[in-house]
Amino acid sequence: MNSQLNKSEKKRRIKTIDALSDYDMEISSVALSENSVPIELKGGKKYFKTQVNYRPQDHEPLFHFPMLFNQDGSPWYEGNQFILSVASDYSFEYDTTKIARKASALLDYKIWCEENDVDMFNYSARRPKNRPSYRYFSYLLDEGKSAGNLNTRTKLVYDFTCYFSSKYQIDKNRIDQVTDVQKSYSSKTGETYQKKLKKRSQTKARNNSRSSVDNSLVLDDGEYLKPLDEDQQKLMFKHIKSSSFNVDERLIFQFAVDTGARKQSILTLRLKHLEHFKPENLKKDGTYEINAGQGCLMDSKNSKNITIKVPSYLAESLKIYANSKAAKKRRKLFVQKYGNIFTDPDEMYVFLGKRGDCRYMAKSDPRFSSTRTPPSGGSIKTIVNRLFKVLENDNDNENEGNHIPSDFTFHWLRATFAYNLYLHLLPLVDAKKMTYSDQIAFIQDALGHDNPSTTENYLKLFTSENVLEEMQETWEERLFQQSAFDLV
């Protein structure tokens, strides 16, 4: 089936329920227990609802829940049952986008089984290559799926089949070969520890060869980043500070360069955080510390708990912006659109769009679970695209080497922060006032890396830069005292 027909077929066979409630109830024509609740129908008929899994009575429904259907239009029992089990599992942080992706990928597998006359629950074949999961794995390899995409899909098929292994009497060892492996990790203090993991055979090794082809890139938590050098930073700052960009857009970029924070943290900054920016909370290094991650108002990647150090000069700029007419107008628009959804008004976002919408919806936002596609920072891409357009029209940019690479992304500013911090610490290392290990630990803590090896990848990249000595004087004594934005 070609891609266009496949999309059409999937659209027909996957529907969304706005709010799925009573998903912990069993429907029956007779009372199953004394707790069964009768529901009267027209004509005197009735049916009963019986709670089969304990949940607090005030639990929220599953918003925008995907329902899967067979070719004949009837509900696909196994698919829906499995997706429901995933969505209602306490270990799964319900996210409408995540659950939609799982449902879509599972339907892809079902459609493939139908097209290839494969019984997805028949694992009687003697040779593994003839069993459903192995055949699908081979198909995905032939399709050239990326390692991340392929591994996610085969893991879903494995979990799905295991879920029904008892019902269809399937030996789990025939679904995939799973072995125990030990993986070594290093703590922030340098201590090494091992963690026991499960490794499946139906996986594809991730290809990290990009960094060997382009040694100016660094791999950070699965993403390739590249720091901007001094000239590139000056060029970016020059235009971001121009009339082509609003104050809040400049502050978003400045926040990234001066803290190394990711967009999900920056864009979920709240007014409550600004209240923390008081003299009594100022650290000796001239920064304020705010927390992000699980249980915090500010989001982080994978809800990991991290501490972000905000320089005092940036904190003051943020407070000035938050009290501006433009910022107040946007907050007013937000309330007009969505009402007073926050129990504490100071939980309001600092960075809102011109129309009063949040640029990135935090997981703690009351609307998050009921929003089908929560904003996830797409407006940042728009700002970056505008930056490139402004650069194209820059007639003063005559220096041939003075340009921003065409593959630049906002996330590069995280690597740029690390680069600036490295240059700031280098004189201390050279003067033997700080050890190499201390330098790694300092940068590791600033970036929130779990493993020192990730931070070491940064340092390997930085020490290979030819412009290192030229840039050194520029950055000495600047960090946390003056913004990189003040270079121009």
UniProtKB/TrEMBL annotation:
<dbReference type="GO" id="GO:0015074">
    <property type="term" value="P:DNA integration"/>
</dbReference>
<dbReference type="Pfam" id="PF00589">
    <property type="entry name" value="Phage_integrase"/>
</dbReference>
<feature type="domain" description="Tyr recombinase">
    <location>
        <begin position="223"/>
        <end position="472"/>
    </location>
</feature>
<dbReference type="GO" id="GO:0006310">
    <property type="term" value="P:DNA recombination"/>
</dbReference>
<dbReference type="InterPro" id="IPR011010">
    <property type="entry name" value="DNA_brk_join_enz"/>
</dbReference>
<dbReference type="InterPro" id="IPR050090">
    <property type="entry name" value="Tyrosine_recombinase_XerCD"/>
</dbReference>
<keyword id="KW-0238">DNA-binding</keyword>
<protein>
    <submittedName>
        <fullName>Integrase</fullName>
    </submittedName>
</protein>
<feature type="compositionally biased region" description="Polar residues">
    <location>
        <begin position="204"/>
        <end position="214"/>
    </location>
</feature>
<keyword id="KW-0233">DNA recombination</keyword>
<keyword id="KW-0229">DNA integration</keyword>
<dbReference type="InterPro" id="IPR013762">
    <property type="entry name" value="Integrase-like_cat_sf"/>
</dbReference>
<feature type="region of interest" description="Disordered">
    <location>
        <begin position="192"/>
        <end position="214"/>
    </location>
</feature>
<dbReference type="GO" id="GO:0003677">
    <property type="term" value="F:DNA binding"/>
</dbReference>
<dbReference type="InterPro" id="IPR002104">
    <property type="entry name" value="Integrase_catalytic"/>
</dbReference>
<comment type="similarity">
    <text>Belongs to the 'phage' integrase family.</text>
</comment>
